[in-house]
Amino acid sequence: MKTSSIVPQEIISEKIYLIREQKVMIDSDLAELYQVPTKRLNEQVKRNRERFPADFMFQLNQFEWNHLKSQTATSSSRWGGRRSLPYVFTEHGILMLSSVLTSERAMSVNIQIMRIFVRIRSFLNQNETLLRKIRQMEKNGEDRDHQIKVIFDWIRKIESNQSRKKDSKPRVRIGFKI
């Protein structure tokens, strides 16, 4: 079995989405990578449904699909696109696909996908501290945004008061005059 890169890592990485707080891949993207029709991939999954529990695979709802379509260029059903909502596979579901799709290409691509999932998980674990700091900065940033707005409001008030002073007539001095 050949395990060298069949598909560039960037292409696989671009096909991983975060849906329902899980990293998933769409059935049509997987079928494209495996070079099989989406219909055939889903047929194999349906024949082996017991291998794909809800935490391995689920079907998108209409809102999720519309949101995903807005992020990716997908065709509409009027022009030969999907007629049903797609299935998405979690990391474990993709791993299970290797047991129902037995072509050499499917196995090789699956190995690549698994390596990318591992790399993503490792990256997130290594940068958890950085992520916490970024979240804290975002939280603090909301307070700072409000403070900066208040400062700019005061600056505008001061500027408008100064411009009114310049536009008004010179003041008549009151008090004792020599």
Give an overview in words:
The protein has 7 helices and 4 strands. The chain is of the alpha+beta class. It has 2 domains: 9-126, Mlu1-box Binding Protein, DNA-binding Domain (Roll); 128-164. It has a 4-stranded antiparallel beta sheet. The relative contact order is 0.12. The mean pLDDT is 81.
Give structural attributes.
alpha+beta; 7 helices; KilA-N_DNA-bd_domain; four-stranded antiparallel β-sheet; 178 residues; ORF6N domain-containing protein
Residue-averaged pLDDT: 81
Residues in helices, as a percent range: 55-70%
**CATH fold title of the largest domain:** Mlu1-box Binding Protein, DNA-binding Domain
**% residues in beta strands:** 5-15%
Count the E strands.
4
Tally of helical segments: 7
Q: Structural class from helices and strands?
A: alpha+beta
Along the chain, the helix and strand elements come as HEEHHEHEHHH
Cα-atom Rg, whole angstroms?
Answer: 29 Å
Through-space gap between termini:
108 Å
**CATH architecture call of the largest domain:** Roll
Residue runs with pLDDT of under 50 for 5 or more positions: none
Oligomer: single chain
> What is the molecular shape?
elongated
Widest sheet: strand ordering: 1-2-4-3
- Main beta sheet, described? 4 strands, antiparallel
Q: Please report the first level of CATH classification, the CATH class of the largest domain.
A: Alpha Beta
Tally of distinct domains: 2
Domain KilA-N DNA-binding: 14-100
Organism: Luteibaculum oceani
Protein name: ORF6N domain-containing protein
Pfam families: ORF6N
